Amino acid sequence: MEQAEKEAKIPEVENQKILKRSLKYGLEAAPSIGDRTISTFTREPRPAYAGIPTFLRTPFLEDVRRVGEYDVAFMGVPFDIGTTYRAGARFGPEAMRRISKLYTSYSYEKGVDLVESLNMCDVGDVFTIANIEKSFDQIFKAVSHVFKQGTLPVMLGGDHAIGYPCLRAIAEHVDGKVGIIHMDRHLDLQEKDMDERMHTTPWFHATNIPNAPPENLVQVGIGGWQVPREAVQNVRKFNTTAISIDDVEKLGIEKVAEIALEKAWQGGAKAVYLSVDIDSFDAGFVPGTGWPEPGGFTPREGLKFLDIVAREGICGMELVEVSPPYDVSDQTALLGTRIICDVLASMVDAGKLGKKFS
């Protein structure tokens, strides 16, 4: 109930700048239009069905050499040749950008307006190619470029194979340990699958990075009938932390988040990376994914967990495995968008903004 009072304290400076810019560049509306904040050509977040989609309608940054001028950079990674079942996640970035037009920059529950709090941009998509390892090189270079400029990289996947090059790019620029909090129904901890480093393998390879030790890897939401025994054996072998949905039921979201944070930040870790596989949510809520598995998080549970985790600060995040060809009414892409927005808002509200690694 205090949200309405909190809203009164949020400035509208940046939103007014956007409105003035839209009238300047999009031309004033026809004389018959009574609302003089409307322009002739759409240059602002209205209407939701129009405009060229960037994530949350943030400015498209054509010159990525200037990315250091921004707090947050959204980056599409249209890659799905690491999938082992249903492909289509290469269209995930496009779907999330398009459905993000439904959102304003203000969250009633969080009491945060992202446009007023952060300088954000969309740097477009990484040019991924028809080769897994060469695509990894491209992703590594892209994420590394953004991160070393001091900008928080937010990756829109793409299948989960991208987790390895994304984490590697960040770890290279962190002077100390990097922890990983990974939401998923699957462990993704095999060395290889189908003789390649597929979307079932990222954390095996990520935890071989010298400053991303396996004991700082926490995997939350694991369960069902799609968890290879090889991956389970590697949990024991590498001493990672795997928390099942049954554990979540028994312990509660708050306790699970507490454990995840303790494990990820242990040993004096300097940063924590957040990886969210959309299939960590129950298949009834996310039909548009490559490996749907019943019994996962409800949206309310998952968002609560992410709120607690994000308030401690993260150094980067990825949202993966949104596969639009299998989606229904864009509900999977919409949840992916909501997750990203909520994580950013939680960091803003906690005064972190992903800068804890500095």
TrEMBL record:
It holds the Pfam family Arginase. The keyword Metal-binding applies. GO terms for molecular function: agmatinase activity; metal ion binding. GO terms for biological process: putrescine biosynthetic process from arginine, via agmatine. InterPro entries: Ureohydrolase, Ureohydrolase_dom_sf, Ureohydrolase_Mn_BS. Keywords: Hydrolase, Metal-binding. The keyword Metal-binding applies. Belongs to the arginase family. Agmatinase subfamily. This is Agmatinase. It comes from Anaerobacillus arseniciselenatis.
